[in-house]
Q: What sequence folds into this?
């Protein structure tokens, strides 16, 4: 089969089924993998991606379909494990596979294997090459040395892409499509049909899907992670512009005890206070709700206003490494807390938090609406006629504890306008108000007041750790 023939086949049937099994599992059997492959074939799949000589030979012989073959093997001193050397290529040549997939990231290969020599050897043996890449630079190298296809397989799985956004590498596909002429196979973290359609729209020729189609172990693990209660108790922490709060929660999300102090101006003083509560109360894990933008991948505060001094650069995951930790912007965390309430479970719910500052967040169908690095919707910074932002009119730092009647009137008007804007843009099932200003008796706005009262930030922080949203990168820390 030529590269042109395979490309034409994929244009008509652009779904590739990756049928692989984790070692030492019930799926790790050629007969089992054959039946999984046949299930995908019955729905129109015409190309398979398979690992291991016995599996490839068995499935290829019986189905007769084009196969992208690979061997995963680790070598000391190298992170490359997908068909890393000529030895694996020679093994694959005995299987009848049509394409050989290999790691083409810009990393040292084991045994000083020369990548160009490896690609040339595969072509001389009459096989095509799929380059498993992690970046545009790697894909460009793959095209230059003659790879017939490039894939996004390793985006997010190498050192240089460790902070890659969760979900498929759609931006990488767009970049590859803009700079390469070789066909692109999108692969990695595809879990929903719309993602596959988006990958094709972004410029991919085909989409390779594995675990979502053929790995019941992976799928079961995902469901178990979603439904099994975590180890308790959990410490919820709310870092605001006025108070630093902490609360201890049961696995059932019941607040057992809480405490607060005036916000310490020193980063280390804040962290020490959090550590003292976690240790003294015997917390097993920590959820943090805080002003600013917090990258959920790294736990680092990447942006913050001066209302929380010495905040940017704080690394919660490192500073609190004795506990599993998850940290997020306070508006997002509070919104997630409300989304976890029985009345809002599975719905689209928005939260407007009027405290010292103005926070905002929304959740929909088990996900927080946020950017890839934890960016939150900047409702607080929207400018009003007259030159003030929403936060400069509605924030408690401006209104103080005793706002004038005129301030109350203006604040209620702007709050109503903000609510109308949120409803018009997001069309949520409900909008929940919280924070000292948001819960005040004088604020005249429709909508629901938070049932958490002044502890909404604590409940939101605890919910992050107890019930992680589907788009939160859950690592070994949580």
A:
């Amino acid at each position: 089969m030529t590269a042109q023939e395979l490309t034409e086949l994929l244009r008509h049937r652009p779904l590739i089924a990756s049928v692989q099994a984790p070692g030492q599992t019930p799926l790790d059997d050629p007969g089992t993998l054959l039946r999984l492959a046949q299930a995908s074939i019955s729905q129109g799949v015409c190309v398979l991606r398979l690992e291991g000589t016995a599996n490839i030979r068995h499935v290829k012989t019986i189905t007769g379909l084009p196969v992208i073959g690979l061997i995963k093997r680790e070598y000391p001193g190298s992170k490359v494990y997908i068909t890393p050397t000529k030895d694996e290529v020679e093994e694959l040549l005995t299987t009848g596979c049509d394409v050989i997939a290999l790691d083409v990231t810009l990393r040292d290969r084991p045994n000083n294997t020369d990548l160009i020599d490896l690609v040339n050897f595969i072509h001389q043996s009459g096989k095509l090459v799929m380059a498993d890449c992690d970046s545009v630079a790697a894909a460009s190298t793959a095209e230059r040395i003659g790879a017939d296809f490039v894939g996004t397989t390793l985006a997010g799985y190498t050192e240089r892409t460790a902070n890659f956004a969760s979900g498929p590498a759609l931006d990488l596909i767009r970049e590859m499509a803009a700079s390469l002429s070789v066909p692109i196979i999108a692969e990695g973290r595809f879990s929903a049909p719309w993602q596959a359609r988006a990958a094709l729209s972004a410029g991919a020729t085909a989409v390779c899907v594995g675990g979502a189609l053929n790995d019941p172990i992976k799928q079961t693990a995902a469901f178990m992670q979603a439904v099994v209660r975590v180890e308790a108790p959990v410490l919820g922490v709310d870092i605001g512009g006025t108070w630093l709060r902490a609360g201890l929660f049961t696995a059932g999300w019941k607040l057992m005890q809480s405490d607060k102090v005036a916000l310490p101006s020193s980063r280390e003083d804040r962290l020490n206070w959090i550590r003292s509560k976690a240790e003294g109360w015997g917390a097993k894990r920590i959820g943090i709700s805080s002003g600013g933008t917090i990258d959920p991948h790294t736990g680092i505060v990447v942006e913050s206003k001066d209302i929380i001094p010495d905040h940017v650069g704080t690394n919660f995951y490192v500073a609190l490494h004795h506990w599993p930790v998850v940290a997020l912007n306070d508006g997002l965390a509070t919104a997630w807390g409300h989304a976890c309430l029985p009345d809002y479970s599975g719905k689209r719910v928005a939260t407007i938090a009027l405290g010292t500052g103005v926070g905002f967040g929304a959740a929909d169908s088990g996900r927080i609406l946020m950017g890839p690095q934890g960016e939150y919707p900047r409702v607080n910074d929207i400018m009003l006629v007259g030159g003030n932002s929403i936060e400069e009119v509605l924030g408690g730092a401006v209104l103080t504890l005793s706002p004038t009647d005129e301030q109350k009137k203006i604040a209620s008007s702007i709050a109503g306008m903000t609510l109308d804007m949120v409803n018009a843009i997001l069309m949520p099932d409900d909008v929940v108000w919280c924070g000292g200003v948001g819960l005040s008796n004088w604020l005249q706005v429709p909508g629901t007041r938070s049932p958490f009262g002044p502890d909404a930030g604590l409940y939101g922080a605890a919910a992050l750790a107890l019930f992680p949203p589907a788009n939160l990168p859950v690592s070994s820390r949580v």
